[in-house]
Amino acid sequence: MSKAPTQDGHPKARCRTRNWCEYDRALITRGDLTVCISPDVAWHAAKGTGKRGRLPVFLDAAIQCVLTLKVLYRLPLRAAQGMARSLIWLAGLDRLVPHYRTLSRRQHSLKVAISCHARGGPLPLVIDSTRLKMLGEGEWKVWKHGVDKRRVWREVHLVIDADSHEVPAVEMTDHRHGDGEIVPGLLAQLHPEEQIGIISGDGADDTRGVYEASAARGAALVVPRRHNGKPWKVHTTGAVERNESLHAIEHLGRRFWKRWSGDHRRSLSETVMSRLKRLGERLSARDPVRQVAEVQIRCAILNTFNAFGMPDIVACTRPKR
């Protein structure tokens, strides 16, 4: 079977999965409904704290569980309430179900818990962004009949662990903010004691602010130069490493620099972007704050699925031309 050629004209390398049995069981586990609502999750808030005002009935974990059902199965709030009620009844649990109005109100102030597995050693991170549609017509209709209504997207900026494919940090903006402006805030979401080995990004991250933020975390930044990028003065933070990269790209070529610096690992972000959009290419929430919670829940779902198991794919011998 012929393979599509790559940019250098050579056929793509054949790949195989070495842990197919374990990955097959992980794919089956993703359909388990107890992933969203588990008997071990704390559900109701404590009664009586000595503070003034009405106390919340449900913990944030309970709200996140029901909203996870909503995001995972693309349900309206009322249908998510009904599905959670039926699951709790089938499981025989003595729990109340949040009303759909409570879900809508609590989503505005929800602190989503994005679980990540702790690993030893510095983390190799990849920073990239994609867009999710908030308002407008579908792509097929626009291609077939043209644009009739205004279309609006939201920019989703992700920090991706290149080894585990987990998403430890996420940020949402509109089109008026560049990618380089968001990187310091993304790194601030990580634990201060978390060690970062290398940060990979695209040409939009080739800014002084990104170099300063990565240097503050003790991480090496690997980004290609921007269009018509010029060397920086030596006293600028990260100028020595950046100027060396510019020199290597200019004299040895971008392809050699990618292999030498490890920039090719940045393509792993496209896999995470694809998995994120399989949960829906359109945001159901209209409020920007609720949209942030919705995207954070999507990232929490991806991290949960990763914990079940990921494929161990290795490249075989590249076929001859």
How many runs of DSSP E, i.e. beta strands? 7
Mean of residue pLDDT? Answer: 85
CATH architecture of the largest domain: 2-Layer Sandwich
Task: Kindly report the CATH topology of the largest domain.
Answer: Nucleotidyltransferase, domain 5
Query: In angstroms, what separates the terminal alpha carbons?
Result: 12 Å
Specify Rg, calculated over alpha carbons: 23 Å
DSSP helix fraction: 25-40%
Q: Walk across the major sheet and give the strand order.
A: 4-3-2-5-6
Sequence stretches where pLDDT stays below 50 over 5 or more residues: none
Give the helix/strand class: alpha/beta
Number of structural units classed as domains: 2
How many helices does DSSP assign? 11
For the largest beta-sheet, the strand count, sense and barrel status come to: 5 strands, mixed
Order of helices and strands: EHHHHEHEEHEHEHHHHE
What proportion strand? Answer: 5-15%
Write down the overall geometry.
Answer: globular
**According to CATH, what is the class of the largest domain?**
Alpha Beta
